[in-house]
Amino acid sequence: MAETIVTASPTEPTITISRWFDAPRRLVYDAMTKPELVKRWWGFRDDELVVCEIDHRVGGRWRFVLRHPDGREDGFGGVYKEIVPNLRVVQTFIYDPYPDAEAVETAILVEENRGTTLSILVRHKTMEARDGHLGAGMERGLKITHERLAELLAHLRATQ
Asked: Cα–Cα distances in Å, from 48 out to 36, 40, 122?
């Protein structure tokens, strides 16, 4: 079974994320960029993505708000900096409680081994911001979110 690998650089304010998905690159890209699909996998299993706004163009904004079972909400957002369809997306990432800790995420999709590897480089401004991101439970949440994405991709492949 595929696993999400999260690694923090010992010398740079970066996090690398890698995960292989059993789906063609086009399908993974669609699942990452179409709101009707993102709503089906982004966040913890018991959360509801109550806001999923994606203006998928350079300069366009994205905004997600997760509602947890206790009613608490967490917001995330950013701006698209570069888009190469089915290959690469560069965007900013801001978690609402920390608006000054903007990160830049570069996602690259590579079709290989009859599936697609998603590689993400998250670059923070400081080591403290990077460590705060990791310390907020990012790795646990990401692994669950990627499991949900893998399940959605399996469903989409089966229905094509």
From this structure: 13, 9, 25
What is the per-residue DSSP string for 60-86?
-EEEEEEE-TTS-EEEEEEEEEEEETT
Return the domain boundaries, the chain. 5-158
Q: Is 29 left (phi over 0), alpha (psi -120 to 50) or beta?
A: alpha
Q: Distance between alpha carbon 126 and the CA centroid of its chain, in Å?
A: 20
The CA distance from 41 to 25, in Å, is 17
The overall pTM is greater than 0.90: yes
Give the residues of the chain that fall short of pLDDT 70: 1
CATH architecture of 5-158: 2-Layer Sandwich (3.30)
